[in-house]
């Protein structure tokens, strides 16, 4: 059973490939599109909010492990109004996703929530971090966004059908 879903941000939560390169301030163009100071748009991927609501209703915790400078990530999460869905979200300027996930697990444990690796689903548009995550954390489940799932509705279906 999945108890924690850890999401990547770039090309997973939204369509942009690297929000670190964008320039603040951001403004909301529509409920699912933001624009940076240079007019570069960032769009939430289809059905993301449906997925976040689904997870909340099912009691599944959702967090974030993003290889980015944190400022733009957290500004966008807040602007889109989705920051409220994430527990202990982490954005750091390095590729060591296993360290971010370890921090999430540690923070949950300090709150009395112990999560085992087989209860974690990691969703990213790339699998380059997966072997190190599994080596350092354990056999977490994984879905590659854009390959295993085309949108967040498919993620809901996969979880409902126990992956």
Describe the structure.
The chain is of the alpha/beta class and 163 residues long. A five-stranded parallel β-sheet has the order 6-5-1-7-8, with helices on both faces. It has a three-stranded antiparallel β-sheet with strand order 2-3-4, with no helix packed on it. The protein is globular and about 40 Å long. The model has no long low-confidence stretch (mean pLDDT 97). The chain is built from five helices and eight strands; from the N terminus they run ββββαβαβαβαβα. α3 (97-110) crosses α4. β2 and β3 (33-35) form a beta hairpin. It is 31% helix and 20% strand.
How does the SSE layout of this entry go?
Elements: E1 4-7, E2 27-30, E3 33-35, E4 41-43, H1 48-58, E5 61-67, H2 70-79, E6 90-92, H3 97-110, E7 120-124, H4 130-136, E8 141-144, H5 152-160
Parallel strand pairs: 1-5, 1-7, 5-6, 7-8
Antiparallel strand pairs: 2-3, 3-4
Helix pairs in contact: 1-5, 3-4
Summarize the structure.
The protein has about 160 residues and is α/β, with parallel strands linked by helices. It contains five helices and eight strands.
Q: What is the H/E order?
A: EEEEHEHEHEHEH
Major sheet strand order: 6-5-1-7-8
* Major sheet size, sense and barrel closure: 5 strands, parallel
What oligomeric assembly is this protein in? single chain
Radius of gyration: 15 Å
Count of alpha/pi helices: 5
Strand content: 15-25%
Q: Label the structural class.
A: alpha/beta
Using DSSP, what is the number of strands?
A: 8
